[in-house]
Design a protein that fits this description.
Shape: elongated
Largest sheet: none
Radius of gyration: 15 Å
Order of helices and strands: HH
Strand content: under 5%
Number of helices: 2
């Protein structure tokens, strides 16, 4: 279940990046859509990193040895 939440957050990060990309391509100068999408992406990325650290600390995920 924990890994599904992490995967869902990652997909939302990719979706937010796509929204920012298409907003950039449209070149709408009066729109703050790209700024908001990139802000959401940064917040989700920080949240995902924290989620990974918490999951590792509680043993919900484990790193693979290389």
């Amino acid at each position: 279940m924990f890994k599904l939440v992490m995967a869902a957050v990652f997909l939302f990060i990719l979706f937010s990046l796509g929204v920012a990309f298409f907003s950039f391509i449209k070149k709408d100068k009066n729109s703050d859509k790209m700024l908001k999408a990139l802000t959401v992406r940064i917040a989700l990325s920080i949240g995902l990193i924290i989620l990974m650290m918490v999951g590792s600390q509680f043993g919900l995920i484990s790193p693979h040895g290389i």
